[in-house]
Amino acid sequence: MVKVESTLCSQEIVEKKTDLSEAARIHYLTPENTEFALTEGKLLSVRVDGELYPVVYLHCSFPHSNKRMFISVRTSENQEVGMVKSLDEFPVDIVRLLDEQIHMRYFAPIITKVINIHEEFGYSYWEAETTAGHLQFTVRRGGGNVKMVSSVKVLITDLDGNRFLIEDVNQLSEKEYRMVEMSL
Amino acid sequence: MIKKNMKTLPEELKGFINQSGLQEEKILYWVNCDRGIDGGFVDTYVILTEEALYRLSNGQTFQQEKTFKGFVSKTVNKDLKPLEMNQLKIERIGIDEIHSIQVVNLIASGMLVIKAPNERAFASFTNGNMARAVKLESIFSKLKKNESIQFQKEWGEEEDAAACPHCGMIYPEKGRPVCPKCLKRHAIFTRLLGFARSYKKSIFFIVLLMLLNSATGLAIPYFQGTILFDQALGGTGIFAGKIALVVGIIIFLRTLSLLFGALFGTMNAKLAANIVFDLKTNIFSAMQRLSLSFFQKKQTGQLMTRVNNDANELQHFFIDGIPYFIVNAMNIVGITIILLIMDWKLTLICLLPMPFVILLIRWVFPKLWRLGWRRHRRVSILNSIISDTVQSARIVKAFGKESVEIDRFQKANLTFSDVEQKFNKMNSTIFPIINLITQIGGILIWAFGGWRVMHGDLSFGEIMSFVTYIYMLFGPIQFMNNIAGWWSNCMSAAQRIFEVQDAVPDVSEKEDAVHLEKMRGEIRASHVGFCYEPNKPILKDVSLHAKPGQMIGVVGPSGAGKSTLVNLISRLYDVTDGEILLDGINVKDLTAESLRKHIGIVSQEVYVFMGTVAENIAYGNPECSVEEIIYAAKIANAHDFIEKLPDGYDTMIGTGGYSLSGGEKQRISIARAVLHDPNILILDEATASLDTETELQIQEALESLVHGRTTIAIAHRLSTLRNAHYLYVLDQGKVVEEGTHEELMKLNGMYKGMVQKHEDALKMKEVI
């Protein structure tokens, strides 16, 4: 193959190109510019470059693949205050606080044991042991209400939109897997 | 354990409330906040009275068990403790201290945040209680503003409607009045048979022919065995030596059986086609009667395909199911009787392997079914990859990602091939095994029967007949073994079809609805609110007034709720709050016919139906004359392009027909509205997707159309609203500004900003 050089050398092109991170104008929150704190009302507040946001909520950009990176910090009016690139950048106590806030927003019982799934008239009735106790819920068949959200994780959404998770489908027993598989 | 989803407070709580000095009758509203703020499920109640907001909770005690909506629990856990009243803590916050209550959406749940004076997470709840929480928020805000609050009964109504009238269970799905607990499959079956009622005669003949077919079929082995071997060849009985006659009878019986078979087959095919035709017509008309929301719900697409598939499923029910069930049942009974009469001992011996066959089938079939399901899923994935790549061929090529797509396909193909192989392996192993076992029965007959023949207890002819009958028995038994699954499939299919038939439209006409022959065209919307889902309001407190003949402009960013507003005016949906009056009459009190007759919509989503251009224009008024069609096309600026088409107004358009450009379709839909000749015209971004030149042409068309009609025009491009008498600026579901163009420009607010941006954009275009 013959390589043809462009009239502009590659160095010049790089200089002329806009940097994506610049174009996106994402404001990263770092331990240097940000102070998180728990309010008396058990909510999260943040001070960024001296400006106080009395109540903010954490939105994970990748809630299924990695909750700990790219966390968008938003006000209740859905205005983005900034983004935390990785939780690990922050000191341990702040990480704990942010973890709690993430858990508050994304709380979904994790299924530890599938006891029974039976189907009738377009609904499947689930009975399972979870991290939040023994639960019984109803799922509408089809429409992606039981779906793989990663190679091992299954997300189950019931009639009201309540969410339940199977963290690792490979950890299920053969019998449990058979029941879950028929609902996928 | 406190019963959930109750409209009145749980009894245990009432006692507690009275003891706490809080009177039950003072309660305005309450919500069960069943989620802990930090996770887990709890029993917390938030109660609103005119004086204070209360929270009753048992601290951080999590529930060990929870049953969500729709689950019919068969077992009751007796170990569960009831809500322990002595552990309940009550917290009171005076209304004066609270500035606001806000419902914050979390993922799959919600949280009540109160501001008193600082913001505070007060309680959290799962999605099922979202509607009640939103209501509490709204009642509190009315209370704060000293607005009148209507009383409890009204708030419970929606929940009343959603419960099964027999057992009181809340339906698992709102808007789907199906109670799995009370649903009887037999009832569905009877109802399904109702479709066949008008074909009683054909069914009678079909069953008769099938029985005759079976009877002649059953006689053949007897003639082939006992009569041919023992009598004709053996030289005994009335057929002794009459080989030709016996062979003749066998041929005759076979022909007769074939004839009966062919006859019932033809009749059955005709009947099934008729029934499925009735069924499809029935479903389609049932669907047309339903409200727009039915079609816009997420599962509509699925439902429609399903209905089509379900109709086919039921076709099998009528063709392969019922008749074969009758015949197979008769065959089993008939053959068993014949066998028992011939030799009951031998019958029992040859039935020996049967339990093994049944056990094997029971054991293997679920596995096979699962593999089948897995294979089906893999095929779907494979198919979606193919359709994905074909549809996005341009992107794939632009990014040069052909090899990535090939890899993706290969991967899916490989997994599919794995499953396919497993399925085929099992399929091809299990059936020979089943056959082998069943044939053991036949071998056993040969062995024991042969032994008895040698002892002279049985004739050779009898044993021949016997073996043939045994083989004839296996088919029907296999059929019966699969019947449970088949029955359940058919009944589910029938249920889904009946569901569409029984669905109640969200927007329905009142019995004493008023019909307006003439309409002046006055529109008044007062304090209109609307939401598809609780806590996701699309419109909030929107008021609007249009005098007859006026042109009203509605502007605002996308997602502001503009299209929803016009959908409410034409009553494609019903308002959640407030009211909409046309000529002073609430739209809910008007007949659907008066609304459709007097309101015309030209929207951004243009749709042409399968048919000619003329038919498309005349859609709303098929009785109109040819001149009227041409006038309408002329007014809509469509006449010129139609004349250019080789087939003129007779050009077939729509799916599979001549393809029109966006602007052309738009002009056809305007012509449709022109011919419809409404008093109220709604222009919903009618020109938003067009280029400037086409837009100008269509603008001209619209200007002549709006004259003398009340018009509500929604537009992104403000130039299209230059003739509007009055403008409303909508943002996030609220009217943020209103007035004439001049007044709004003076306001120096959002409208002015939009106009300036628009002008800048136009200038940019000129420069370019």
Automatic annotation (TrEMBL), chain A:
<dbReference type="Pfam" id="PF08909">
    <property type="entry name" value="DUF1854"/>
</dbReference>
<protein>
    <recommendedName>
        <fullName>DUF1854 domain-containing protein</fullName>
    </recommendedName>
</protein>
<dbReference type="InterPro" id="IPR015005">
    <property type="entry name" value="DUF1854"/>
</dbReference>
<feature type="domain" description="DUF1854">
    <location>
        <begin position="60"/>
        <end position="180"/>
    </location>
</feature>
UniProtKB/TrEMBL annotation, chain B:
<dbReference type="InterPro" id="IPR039421">
    <property type="entry name" value="Type_1_exporter"/>
</dbReference>
<feature type="transmembrane region" description="Helical">
    <location>
        <begin position="346"/>
        <end position="365"/>
    </location>
</feature>
<feature type="domain" description="ABC transmembrane type-1">
    <location>
        <begin position="204"/>
        <end position="480"/>
    </location>
</feature>
<dbReference type="Pfam" id="PF00005">
    <property type="entry name" value="ABC_tran"/>
</dbReference>
<feature type="domain" description="ABC transporter">
    <location>
        <begin position="523"/>
        <end position="757"/>
    </location>
</feature>
<feature type="transmembrane region" description="Helical">
    <location>
        <begin position="203"/>
        <end position="223"/>
    </location>
</feature>
<keyword id="KW-0547">Nucleotide-binding</keyword>
<dbReference type="InterPro" id="IPR036640">
    <property type="entry name" value="ABC1_TM_sf"/>
</dbReference>
<dbReference type="InterPro" id="IPR017871">
    <property type="entry name" value="ABC_transporter-like_CS"/>
</dbReference>
<keyword id="KW-0812">Transmembrane</keyword>
<feature type="transmembrane region" description="Helical">
    <location>
        <begin position="243"/>
        <end position="264"/>
    </location>
</feature>
<keyword id="KW-1133">Transmembrane helix</keyword>
<dbReference type="InterPro" id="IPR027417">
    <property type="entry name" value="P-loop_NTPase"/>
</dbReference>
<dbReference type="Pfam" id="PF00664">
    <property type="entry name" value="ABC_membrane"/>
</dbReference>
<feature type="transmembrane region" description="Helical">
    <location>
        <begin position="469"/>
        <end position="487"/>
    </location>
</feature>
<keyword id="KW-0472">Membrane</keyword>
<dbReference type="InterPro" id="IPR003593">
    <property type="entry name" value="AAA+_ATPase"/>
</dbReference>
<keyword id="KW-0067">ATP-binding</keyword>
<dbReference type="InterPro" id="IPR011527">
    <property type="entry name" value="ABC1_TM_dom"/>
</dbReference>
<protein>
    <submittedName>
        <fullName>ABC transporter</fullName>
    </submittedName>
</protein>
<feature type="transmembrane region" description="Helical">
    <location>
        <begin position="430"/>
        <end position="449"/>
    </location>
</feature>
<dbReference type="InterPro" id="IPR003439">
    <property type="entry name" value="ABC_transporter-like_ATP-bd"/>
</dbReference>
